[in-house]
From TrEMBL:
This is GntR family transcriptional regulator. Keywords: DNA-binding, Transcription, Transcription regulation. It holds the Pfam family GntR. SUPFAM superfamilies: GntR ligand-binding domain-like (SSF48008), Winged helix' DNA-binding domain (SSF46785). PROSITE patterns: HTH_GNTR (PS50949). The keyword DNA-binding applies.
């Protein structure tokens, strides 16, 4: 491998890392739609060139998470109704498949699924609703993680980061988040007890209901 190849690989790795951390900020609810992303600030923070940061922005844009606006630069993208439908199409494909193959999951994966539900319940009890949303999404990340596929992990990470952006229009995040925690717990308990068929049926209804709620909120927000 030449020094040029090594330099290109290092630049790509840095861009991927920056993109991953920006996605995590979105998934955690710390970056909201319309928030600006400054290449100069990020380049300074990570100790990389602005071109490296811009490559991360291009990756995020290809994943539907950011957009470039004239006179504003790169900003976090607002989610549309079409985005919501696309998100749930992917979620059904990946999450339902994960449950179908849950008997092949390792003990570590099952622990990760359980841990995410417990984190959501603890956040709910403390009324930390932003953390509830994050933990609930991590429960669904852990479900897909049980497939042990880095490619699918990257896909669901991007998809659920987009979903978190769709939570922004919710007028009362606590009211929105609370009902899903019990349903996450129910699905988890079915999985942990070996009732994968029942868990899959519960998740399918969950995803249908969730899509309707999120789609309704996004449409109302667009109409205002």
């Amino acid at each position: 491998m030449t020094s040029t190849d090594e330099s290109a690989e290092a630049t790509q790795a840095a861009s991927d890392r920056i993109a991953a951390e920006v996605r995590d900020d979105m998934l955690s609810g710390h970056l909201l739609p319309g928030a600006p992303l400054r290449d100069t600030a990020l380049a300074s923070s990570y100790g990389v060139s602005r071109n490296t940061v811009r490559e991360a922005f291009r990756l995020l844009q290809s994943q539907g998470l950011t957009e470039h606006r004239r006179h504003k630069g790169t900003v976090v993208r607002r989610v549309s109704g079409d985005d919501v439908r696309d998100i749930y199409t992917v979620r059904r494909a990946l999450e339902l498949r994960a449950i179908e193959q849950i008997n092949q999951a390792s003990a570590e994966h099952l622990v990760a699924i359980e841990r995410a539900v417990c984190a959501a319940e603890a956040a709910r009890d403390a009324e930390r609703w932003n953390d509830v949303g994050t933990a609930s999404l991590r429960f669904h990340l852990a479900l897909v993680g049980s497939l042990s596929s880095p490619t699918l992990d990257a896909c669901i990470d991007s998809v659920l980061s987009r979903l978190r952006l769709a939570f922004a229009p919710m007028p009362d995040e606590g009211q929105f988040q609370a009902p899903w925690i019990e349903r996450d717990r129910h699905i988890n308990d079915l999985l942990q007890s070996g009732f994968a068929t029942d868990a899959r049926a519960a998740l399918r209804v969950y995803l249908d209901d969730s899509e309707n709620v999120v789609l309704g909120a996004v449409r109302r927000h667009i109409a205002t």
